[in-house]
Amino acid sequence: MDPNQIAAYIQLGGVLVNVLGASIGQAKTLVSSIKAELHPEMTDAQLDEVLAGIESDADRRKALADQDVKDVEGATGGDSSQSKP
Amino acid sequence: MRQRRAALAYVVLLSAVLAAACAVSLKQKAVLGLQVAEQSSGIAQDAERSVYASGVVKALTPAKHADIARIFSRIFQDERDAAQAMRAWKAGEPAPASVGALLADAGAAWAALQPLLADIGATNIITTIQDWVGKVVIIASTVNLGVPADVKAALAYKPVAAGGGD
Hints:
The complex is a heterodimer of chains A (85) and B (166). Chain A is mainly alpha-helical.
């Protein structure tokens, strides 16, 4: 999270306690609720789902690239590499 | 008394907010950053394949296309490895080594792709590759990895439009 956002949440907590007279417990709950609403954290399962999507797409695209190489090599009958390191 | 209470409130809120904000968010940022980077490399691959398939750029010979495809193959393997490592990454652990490998290979991929693409005047594809390098740098920065000089140079590169390009 952006340090400025963290600072803003802390200031908000200060206002709740010092200006509005909330208890520390109430302020923590309120700040947590607001933060969850504005900056939702993804669960491990959701992150795993995103990662699975990345792996799947990367696999597909790697296969596509490998096939492109094979196609060229098949057409030229051997090593097509021009730009040797 | 009032000041002491306020100070205590700040300390309690600071620790609560920092605890909630840092550990999990770091992984979330890195995962979402990798998702964007992988999509970005896909856009670059699509752009190159499309130009090759069109046959418009005569300088993009089958051999050059194959060279570029080999580099893309490596890029997607790196991104897959990084995704796999992130899956097992727990909060508080150092960033997976494969993120560093992805960053290093981004520099190598750029070094190999940029001259190939500049040679055929494919300015737009160079820009998409540069965009991808930028996305990889964002992931690396998220996990506090230093950016190597060759990657910084890639980001600073200004493509020069050439005639007969993409």
